[in-house]
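Page 42, continued from yesterday. The earlier attempt failed because a stray header line got pasted into the input along with the sequence. Redoing it now with the clean sequence only.
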Amino acid sequence: MDGKSIIIDYRYGDGRYERLPTLAAELIRLKVDILVVVGAVAAHAAKNATSVIPIVIGNAADPVGTGLVVSLARPGGNITGLSDFNIGVVTKRLELLKELVPTASRVAVLLNPSNPTHSPQVKELHAAAPTLGVTILRVEAEGANDIDGAFTVLRNERPGALIVLGDLILGTHRARIAELAVKNRLPAIWAVREDVAAGALMSYGTNFPHLYRRAAVYVDKILKGAKPADLPIEQPTKFDLVINLKTAKTLGLKIRRRSCCGRIR
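This time it went through. Structure tokens are written below.
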């Protein structure tokens, strides 16, 4: 229990990736026993700050591909935790979007170039695009000041649909992005259900509360003596498809679901 059997010190980047190295250094100066981080960028900031203190990743899209760990089965070093498998499911988002908007021949991808997991996800989308009969348009936004400019590009390019990649900074501004997507009548799919609650059309991705409960299990094991290097990184087993029917109606889309498999059409 916080304050009795364990003390938790929180630090929050407030949607600013440049703050994360400083925040990681602050926690290390407190001589914490474990660092728990959310997202690949925060994980890299923690890794760069210490090679001694155990680090538990609450979620990261591609721990191996972005250089956080050597392998999922044997991560090595002082890092372990969970992958949110965003790279593995990003093509599924494209499939769902194409199924919902079959006339879309160009699909835009809104990403944060500062997020190391986004370029690999775009690469996956480009690989899957020919099979689905679409081309991919890359649009970037690193912060609030870039969002209006990104939608100016989208208005000029006129894609048929939009994928918003999972990202703490883009997530901070999810309500504004969702509002602009609806205003521009652009069907969009996101990574997490919180985006849909903010007005986005739909999301497909990892069940993050489940991931974070599993992260607590890792913390418990390490506090009891386990070494991060010996704890395999888990991949998620629960994925959520969430649709905002109000937004769908506003966009003039009809949603139906096959009861056997949960796919939309």
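Notes: The chain is about 40% helix and 15% strand.
Reminder to self: strip header lines before submitting.
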